[in-house]
């Protein structure tokens, strides 16, 4: 299984995670800010989860549904396609990124349209759709505010849920001043958002083709569900003649009622909201209009065959594992050089290109915090550890140990190190001491873990969330 | 071989042979002794405004007092024809760009997240709850359910072309995590909770 991958070796030069992380760490104040901002999001997730009495059962239920999906994807896909077609939706299949891009372009070409408005779709990032369409002379405007900001700056998103989380309002203000003519130096988020709203409203009203991602696709009914807070997917789709929705095949769920489980988990895990503002169920196109669904493989069927890593296909892209990851928080999304960053990205990326992404499974302390928060119970840190073994065996990382140590030393060698340990490490030490002490964790080999303070996790959590609240109110 | 056949073949080869059973959703509790109180609290927390009313006359009053009536107001509810137009549902949706307030009725609401379920049947046009500057949604108090599990039980195999859960006004926190209401959709959401 693994051997097949060799031919996928890429010649593309990327900056290894450890080096990118070191650069990111040059601005200490900014890194601390990035770290804290994401930690606040993680805390919001905790508060929200604790309000649901059977949260753990909910996670277990979601995990079981996804396990069922993994074993039956073949049949569910056939069922989904047949039902979607019955509903008047046109279904396409793409083996890889290239075919996906060609399909999207062919739909544009058929309608003789040169402009597209797009809502968030990590899949199109994975496929580099924007670049492909730009080469064909098609203009794409990303309409999610975070994505719009990074697109204007010619940067990729740094987080799957919070695309511009690496930027400060001063950065956004400058970008908008340059591109939208906003007042120089005005850093008021309300003002900046309003300016983007006005500009994008005009975009929504003038585009004939809208592309969206897919959060869930239901085999039983052939409908797709798209979740946003901004309403941008809906503004695009309901005003356009053609709605193209792109999905990896793992987005399938068996029945409509299973949405109850996933919609309860998704936003709470992502940002601590009880649900996204809009959870839109697209079943049939409007009269005289078109909905196209592009079902994409691009390496997923290979991952499905890797017993140790197939569980990564259960991911619902909530971003919780990133928000909680001490390495992600202190190295930034861009250092992962992959459309999906953070812990889950580090499992998905080597499947796409082992050579190019061999550094990513080492960008982790294996502290297990990701696994603890994952709403579909993916064994994230175990898989990271297993990838290290595969990569070493395949000869992709002759300096495996040094990479692990260097990365962690650089990212975490900083006064805040104890802070980080206090934030996620303490929990791990208290609850999974074996994990920290065992040999798999190179970083812990080299350094003594800070002592576990007397304070219990619960006390610590209470105090910390109060502090966070006080800070919020400042 | 076409990509479809190719992909399906590879999936069949690689998917785990062992099939995990689907879990029993009935184990998840959906009890809530006070759905109305929860509904209101959650809605306020996410930036929406609950308003309890006993009749359409009260809704009319509220709108007359709080909205600029000279601006464009649309609805799908005949009882509100005095202040809102009803004749827009077969227009080009782009013509709704100047709508100030849209008043629609939800099939039901969900207490745990304050979401309201609306479909083609009550929307007039799919874009109507998104394109209006402000949105008001009427829901009967008896139609507020405890959780999303009950919501999907209620939806069952309801037929619709499009349906959406709406929870609060459109929002973003993409600029330094500062919450701003009115990203692309409605800047404010009033939920009239009708007896
Ligand atoms: S791996 Fe789990 S926690 Fe991470 S994004 Fe996916 S679902 Fe969320």
Question: Any descriptors?
Answer:
heterodimer, A: 474 residues, alpha/beta, Rossmann fold, 3 domains, six-stranded parallel β-sheet, four-stranded mixed β-sheet, 22 helices, 10 strands, 10% strand, disordered C terminus, B: 195 residues, five-stranded parallel β-sheet, 6 helices, 11 strands, 25% strand, globular, binds iron/sulfur cluster
Annotate the secondary structure layout.
The complex is a heterodimer of chains A (474) and B (195).
Chain A (H helix, E strand, L loop, with lengths): L16 H8 L3 H23 L4 H32 L3 E5 L2 H14 L4 E4 L3 H5 L2 H7 L3 E4 L2 H8 L16 H12 L8 H18 L2 E4 L3 E3 L4 E6 L3 H8 L2 E7 L3 E2 L5 H12 L7 E5 L7 E7 L3 H6 L14 H5 L1 H6 L10 H11 L16 H5 L6 H14 L6 H13 L4 H15 L1 H5 L4 H5 L10 H16 L2
Parallel strand pairs in A: 1-10, 2-3, 2-4, 4-7, 5-8, 7-10
Antiparallel strand pairs in A: 5-6, 6-9
Helix pairs in contact in A: 1-18, 2-11, 3-11, 8-9, 15-17
Chain B lengths: L2 H12 L20 H11 L3 E5 L2 H11 L5 E4 L23 E7 L2 E3 L5 E4 H4 L4 H4 L2 E7 L3 E2 L2 H8 L6 E5 L4 E2 L7 E2 L6 E7 L1
Bound molecules: iron/sulfur cluster.
Describe the structure.
Chain A has helices at 17-24, 28-50, 55-86, 97-110, 122-126, 129-135, 145-152, 169-180, 189-206, 232-239, 259-270, 300-305, 320-324, 326-331, 342-352, 369-373, 380-393, 400-412, 417-431, 433-437, 442-446, 457-472, and strands at residues 90-94, 115-118, 139-142, 209-212, 216-218, 223-228, 242-248, 252-253, 278-282, 290-296. In chain A, helix 3 crosses helix 11 (259-270), helix 8 (169-180) packs across helix 9 and helix 15 packs parallel to helix 17. In chain A, a hairpin with a 4-residue loop joins strand 5 (216-218) and strand 6 (223-228). A 6-stranded parallel sheet of chain A has the order 1-10-7-4-2-3, with helices on both faces. In chain A, strands 8-5-6-9 form a 4-stranded mixed sheet. Chain A is globular, with a radius of gyration of 22 Å. Chain A is of the alpha/beta class and 474 residues long. Chain A has 3 domains: 15-49 and 308-391, no CATH class; 52-298, NagB/RpiA/CoA transferase-like (Rossmann fold, 3-Layer(aba) Sandwich), CATH 3.40.50; 399-473, no CATH class. Chain A is built from 22 helices and 10 strands. Mean pLDDT of chain A is 86; it is low at 1-11, 414-462 and 464-474. Chain B is α/β, with parallel strands linked by helices. Chain B has one domain: Rossmann fold, CATH 3.40.50.10420. Chain B is built from 6 helices and 11 strands. Chain B has helices at residues 3-14, 35-45, 56-66, 120-123, 128-131, 148-155; strands at residues 49-53, 72-75, 99-105, 108-110, 116-119, 134-140, 144-145, 162-166, 171-172, 180-181, 188-194. In chain B, the strands form 3 sheets. A 5-stranded parallel sheet of chain B has the order 1-11-6-3-2. In chain B, a hairpin with a 5-residue loop joins strand 4 (108-110) and strand 5 (116-119). The radius of gyration of chain B is 20 Å and the shape is globular. The termini of chain B are far apart. The mean pLDDT of chain B is 96. The site of iron/sulfur cluster has 15 residues of chain A, from helix 13.
């Amino acid at each position: 299984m693994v051997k097949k991958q060799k031919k996928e070796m890429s010649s593309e030069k990327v900056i290894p995670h450890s080096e990118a992380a070191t650069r990111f760490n040059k601005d200490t104040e900014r890194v601390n800010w990035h770290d804290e901002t994401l930690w606040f999001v993680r805390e919001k997730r905790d508060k929200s989860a604790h309000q649901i009495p059977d949260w753990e059962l909910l996670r277990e239920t979601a995990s079981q549904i996804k396990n069922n999906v993994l074993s039956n994807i073949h049949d569910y896909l056939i069922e989904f396609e047949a039902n979607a077609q019955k509903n008047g939706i046109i279904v396409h299949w793409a083996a890889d990124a290239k075919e996906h891009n060609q399909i999207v372009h062919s739909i544009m070409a058929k309608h003789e349209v040169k402009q597209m408005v797009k809502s968030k779709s990590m899949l199109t990032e994975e496929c580099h759709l924007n670049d492909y369409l730009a080469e064909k002379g098609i203009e794409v405007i990303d309409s999610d505010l975070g994505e719009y900001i990074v697109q204007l700056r010619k940067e990729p998103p740094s987080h799957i849920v919070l695309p511009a989380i690496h930027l400060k309002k001063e950065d956004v203000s400058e970008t908008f001043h340059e591109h939208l003519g906003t007042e120089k130096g005005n850093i008021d988020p309300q003002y900046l958002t309003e300016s983007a709203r006005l500009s994008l409203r005009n975009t929504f009203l003038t585009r004939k083709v809208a592309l969206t991602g897919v959060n869930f696709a239901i085999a039983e009914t052939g409908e797709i569900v798209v979740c946003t807070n901004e309403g941008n997917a809906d503004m695009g789709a309901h005003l356009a003649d053609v709605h193209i929705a792109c999905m990896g095949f793992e987005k399938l769920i068996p029945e409509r009622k299973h949405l109850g489980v996933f919609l309860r988990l998704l936003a709470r895990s992502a940002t601590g909201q009880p649900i996204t503002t809009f959870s839109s169920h697209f079943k049939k196109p409007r009269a005289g209009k078109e909905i196209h669904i592009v079902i994409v493989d691009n390496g997923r069927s290979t991952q499905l065959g890797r017993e140790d890593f197939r569980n990564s296909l259960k991911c619902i892209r909530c971003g919780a594992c990133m928000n909680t990851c001490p390495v992600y928080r202190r190295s930034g999304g861009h250092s992962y050089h992959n459309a999906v960053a953070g812990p889950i990205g580090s499992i998905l990326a080597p499947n796409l290109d082992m050579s190019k992404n061999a550094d990513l499974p080492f960008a982790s302390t294996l502290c297990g915090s990701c696994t603890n928060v994952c709403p579909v119970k993916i064994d994230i840190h175990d898989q990271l550890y297993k990838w290290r073994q595969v990569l070493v065996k395949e000869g992709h990382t002759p300096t495996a140990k040094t990479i692990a140590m260097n990365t962690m030393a650089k990212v975490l060698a900083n006064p805040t190190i104890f802070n980080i340990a206090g934030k996620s490490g303490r929990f791990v030490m208290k609850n999974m001491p074996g994990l920290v002490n065992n040999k798999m964790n190179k970083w812990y080999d080299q350094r003594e873990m800070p002592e576990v303070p007397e304070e219990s996790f619960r006390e610590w959590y209470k105090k910390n969330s109060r502090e966070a609240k006080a800070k919020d109110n400042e | 071989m076409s990509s479809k056949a190719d992909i399906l073949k590879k999936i069949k080869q690689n998917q785990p042979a062992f099939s995990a059973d689907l879990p029993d959703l009935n184990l998840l509790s959906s009890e809530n002794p006070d759905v109305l109180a929860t509904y209101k609290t959650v809605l306020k927390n996410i930036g929406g405004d609950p308003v309890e009313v006993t009749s359409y006359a009260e809704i009319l009053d509220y709108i007359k007092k709080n909205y600029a009536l000279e601006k464009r107001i649309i609805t799908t509810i005949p009882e509100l024809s005095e202040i809102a137009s009803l004749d827009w549902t077969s227009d080009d949706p782009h013509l709704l760009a100047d709508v100030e307030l849209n008043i629609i009725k939800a099939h039901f609401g969900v207490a745990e997240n304050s979401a309201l379920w609306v479909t083609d049947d009550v929307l007039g046009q799919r874009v109507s709850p998104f394109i209006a500057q402000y949105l008001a949604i009427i829901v009967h108090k008896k139609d507020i359910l405890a959780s999303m599990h009950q919501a999907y039980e209620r939806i069952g195999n309801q037929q619709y072309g499009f349906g959406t859960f709406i929870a609060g006004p459109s929002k973003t926190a993409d600029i330094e995590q500062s919450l701003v209401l009115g990203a692309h959709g409605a800047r404010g959401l009033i939920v009239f909770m009708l007896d």
